[in-house]
Amino acid sequence: MLYYHSSFVIMLDENKSWAYYTVIKKRFVFFWTTKMNPLSNSLPEHELQSTYKKRTRAFLEIVDVTEKFGEMLHLIEKYYHKPLADLDIVKPSVIVILFSGIQIVAALNETMSRKLNDIKKDWKPEISNVGMIMIEMAPYFQMYQQYMRYYAK
């Protein structure tokens, strides 16, 4: 028996075990197996609703923080980076130290924000794809290294 979703497959095998597979880089990757049906909720209804509320609050906080961080990056670019570069007040080497990697981080943030907002449109706390976005975006978080390299300076 197979259950399909846009980003994962849940399969019941001959041993009555449920196996969860997801697609990463166009391949099915095994994540876990269990005897409990992952499509049924084993918690009592009141605990389940409490879990869904907590999950929703956490997700909305991730969306909010991601959007606010993007807004701050945009303001830094608009009011500091661009004027300092255009007016030639500060040496280019200092500008590199001050604003190294900010465009890369802003682009990454914009992509993540867009993906989170796509999920927000059809939000269902019982089946969310937030974890899949994090897995998909994880390799790109290394781009923050250039941004953070000059942070202490």
Explain this structure.
The protein is α+β, with helices and mostly antiparallel strands and 153 residues long. It is built from 5 helices and 4 strands, in the order E-E-E-E-H-H-H-H-H. A hairpin with a 5-residue loop joins strand 2 (8-12) and strand 3 (18-24). The longest helix is centred in the middle third of the chain and has 43 residues, at 45-87. The N and C termini lie far apart (57 Å).
Notable features of this structure?
single chain; 153 residues; alpha+beta; 4-stranded antiparallel beta sheet; 5 helices; elongated
Beta strands, count: 4
Tell the overall outline: elongated
User: Distance between termini?
Assistant: 57 Å
> Beta-strand level of the residues, as a percent range?
15-25%
Oligomer: single chain
Which blocks of ≥5 consecutive residues have pLDDT under 50? Answer: none
Taken in chain order, the helices and strands follow as EEEEHHHHH
- Count of separate DSSP helical elements: 5
Identify the strand order in the major beta sheet. Answer: 1-2-3-4
Give the overall pLDDT as a whole number.
76
Topology:
Layout: E1 2-4, E2 8-12, E3 18-24, E4 27-34, H1 45-87, H2 92-99, H3 102-121, H4 130-137, H5 144-149
Antiparallel strand pairs: 1-2, 2-3, 3-4
Helix pairs in contact: 1-2, 1-3
